[in-house]
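Hey, resending since the last one bounced:
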Amino acid sequence: MVHGGPFPASTDSRFTAVGPYAIKRWVRPVAFQNWPQDFLPDALKDGNPLQILRLVNGVYTDAAI
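The C-alpha cells again:
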C-alpha cells in the first residue's frame, strides 16, 4: 500500500510515508570514517571494549585488537 496524499499524488509511487520507499525519505546515512576514537560508539572503537564479534580487514575478532 502506498500513501502519498490526494489524487493525483496518491497514484505517484515515488512519494510515500510507508513501506520500503519510506526508508529513502526518512533515513539519514551516517559515516564514521576518520572520526576520533573518543567520539565513536563503543561497538566501533578499535579496542573493541564490548568484546563483540566483528569482521576487521577480513579477519573475525572478538578480542581487543
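The chain has two domains: 1-30, 36-65.

Sorry for the duplicate.
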